[in-house]
Protein: Diaminopimelate decarboxylase
Organism: Deinococcus reticulitermitis
Amino acid sequence: MPIPRHALTEAAARLGTPLYVYDAAELDAAAARVQAAFAGAQVFYAVKANPNLHLLRRFAAAGLGFECVSLGELARAQAAGVPVGGVILNGPAKTDAEYAAAARLGATIVVDREEEAALLPPGSRVLVRVNPGAAVSTHDHLATGAARSKFGVTPEQVLPLMERLRDEGHDVLGLHVHIGSAVEREGDFADAFARVLALRPQTGKLGVLNVGGGWLPGADLGTIAAQARQAAAAFGAELWVEPGRYLVASAGWLLTRVVGTKRTGRNFCLVDAGMTEFLRPMLYGASHPLYPLWDALASDVWDVAGPACESGDMIARGVTLPTPQRGHLLLIGEAGAYGASMSSTYLSRPRPAEALWTGSEWQPIRRRESVESLWTLEMADSESGD
Ligand code: LLP
């Protein structure tokens, strides 16, 4: 943990909990690691991992482009300053408003199905997303390159789609393949790339091969980059990548406060963050490292539970912790990716604040939502009557 304990205590006192905290140096270091491993490739940050404008501006300044999947993400890209690296629009079900926003930003559009050929703005720059139909070692919800997933077209559909897109007057830059997120085996990437490479005799030389993201923070980037480079070279193509988690997961923590404990046969440590602030443990059974910011002589096995009225609202089960007490601070690690971005206001819980540690001080980068803001969009009787 690069942020000193006294700074975390101070942030909790000043900005409250639950609080997402990020380390600026680790964000920069992760971007530099990706750029070094993928030297010569264009890196697009997958905005969904963490869309805070401060992070977007930081990555844009480092030369990264953005990968977006919604009107909101495209608008954030624009608000952060369209990166020189460029913008990509992905998604299996794009709306007319999203196509139009992509066209305004000069984004490259990833075509996910045949119908899109007739829906795209005239003269779009496109990639065709191919689903390699490969086995992917990750949670079923996170596998996108398996045959039963909804993404992309089959290898057999690629060539006719490229031809149709060209006939419609679009600029077909090349192919896109993203097999999933939090992929455990690096060999899965090589398998998928091999399936895409089988298309080489039909496609001929391509301008771009975009191999997506999906790398775990601990992944061997050297191996993945070598495989990706080889595939791109075989197509005579420029390599593009779209990492999300790798760039931000390890640079973020969720700081939560112990509300209390109870022993009912199991030991429960109840904290002020749960499924509404951090959904990954509940949605994917994800386990995240926990760092208690207190000392105690005794330790025991604890279930760390959130405040929601759902039994699935657990941060962790069966973890050994020094005996917690109301008021103690607990840090949840690897929370920079898909933490804040997947938080919700379920149970009318305002979403948490976010702060960036610059190495010497805190820069608050998102205010805590106010309770009152939760119903500002709900209409008065005078407005909603017909
Ligand atoms: N490119 C495309 C087309 C994607 O769909 C994704 C992620 C990425 C890139 C970035 O993948 P990454 O490098 O972050 O693995 N909510 C889930 C993750 C869903 C990822 C969806 N697509 C989680 O909390 O694990």
Notes: The chain has a mean pLDDT of 96. The pocket of LLP is lined by residues 46, 49, 67, 90, 142, 144, 178, 181-182, 212-215, 242-246, 280, 284, 338, 342 (CB under 6 Å).
